[in-house]
Amino acid sequence: MLSDSTPLPWRTTWTEALYGKQGFFRHQAPADHFRTSTNSSGLFAAAIWRMVQAEGFAQVVDLGAGRGELLTELHRLSSGALGLTGIEMVDRPGDLPADIGWQHELPEHIDGLLIANEWLDNIPCDVVESGADGVVRYVLVDPTSGAESLGKKCDDPWLDRWWPLTGPGERAEIGSSRDEAWADAVRRVDGIALAIDYGHTAADRPVLGSLRSYRQGHETDVIPDGNRDVTAHVAVDSLVQLTGATLTRQVDALKVLGVTGTRPRLELARIDPGAYVRALSDAALSAELLAPGGWGNFWWISVDSRPVA
Ligand SMILES: C[S@@+](CC[C@H](N)C(=O)[O-])C[C@H]1O[C@@H](n2cnc3c(N)ncnc32)[C@H](O)[C@@H]1O
């Protein structure tokens, strides 16, 4: 828990709250606080495994790997044949299979698939607000209470280009920190770099911004105190322009990879009740991965750096 109540720009407090010495992700496993496509079941990993096989990749690097949930499942599915590496700021989980690599920084070169599920939304941004006078200013926040005030005027070309504010009270998160981080990851990859996250484009920016906090499975007050997650949706169109990425909704990407959410036929219940129950559970978990307004709406932001055949 952070104890200094000096109001500072959001990007500073957010960085400290998640990644500082007492930061949330230094001490907390993401799966203990929120469900993601990768930690909710093995179905997402199975789809990624089908993709990896179809592309002929021998290596997968998971950026922001949590506690290695996706990698552990890929390791099982591939019977240890895939080269797997987790990139995480926390130390290697004790129960990770020994031949999965684990490091704190991205390697200079990645041959295969780089995947980053719900990583970009946790990259801290500056937050700005248009005041009563229409002037756009940085939002300052007291890390102990979440109380906000407006600081100095913001003049930022990213904002002008991607998220211009048009009236008092409107807010935005400046996405250039995400752009830079993603471009840095993409440049290392010979293969496919795939970020998966919730986001928006110029057509549907949230007028009041999208800062949120979560703890123990629930949305909470947004406070950068190190005691909760702090996240904001990703401006995906600026990533596309910077890195030449393509955008696909998760529902469409996963359907291509064989995730359908189709319920088993009722007669299976009579022939093999156990198989029926398992298939029913898989159908429910698949439907969650495809859900409109939920994970199905996530963007797959994909850059394929291989020469066109
Ligand atoms: C929201 S969690 C997602 C975990 C996992 N990918 C999943 O889908 O469940 C984000 C993770 O990214 C890690 N992370 C964030 N920035 C990082 C960085 N620059 N280097 C390594 N890990 C990072 C955090 O520690 C955290 O575990």
What does this protein look like?
The chain has 309 residues and is an alpha/beta fold. The protein folds into two domains: 18-124 and 174-253 and 295-304, Rossmann fold, CATH 3.40.50; 126-173, no CATH class. The protein is built from eleven helices and 17 strands. It has helices spanning 10-19, 24-27, 37-40, 43-55, 69-77, 157-162, 176-186, 236-243, 250-256, 267-271, 273-290, and strands at 8-9, 59-63, 83-87, 101-103, 110-117, 126-130, 136-141, 148-153, 171-174, 189-197, 199-200, 212-215, 218-220, 229-231, 234-235, 246-249, 299-304. The strands form four sheets. It has a seven-stranded mixed sheet, with helices on both faces. Strands 1, 6, 7, 8 and 9 form a five-stranded antiparallel sheet that branches. Helix 4 packs across helix 5 (69-77) and helix 7 packs across helix 8. The chain binds S-adenosylmethionine.
What attributes does this structure have?
single chain, 309 residues, alpha/beta, Rossmann fold, 2 domains, seven-stranded mixed beta sheet, five-stranded antiparallel beta sheet, 11 helices, 17 strands, 31% helix, binds S-adenosylmethionine
In brief:
By secondary structure, this protein is an alpha/beta fold.
Topology overview:
Elements: E1 8-9, H1 10-19, H2 24-27, H3 37-40, H4 43-55, E2 59-63, H5 69-77, E3 83-87, E4 101-103, E5 110-117, E6 126-130, E7 136-141, E8 148-153, H6 157-162, E9 171-174, H7 176-186, E10 189-197, E11 199-200, E12 212-215, E13 218-220, E14 229-231, E15 234-235, H8 236-243, E16 246-249, H9 250-256, H10 267-271, H11 273-290, E17 299-304
Helix pairs in contact: 4-5, 7-8
The structure holds S-adenosylmethionine.
S-adenosylmethionine binds next to α3.
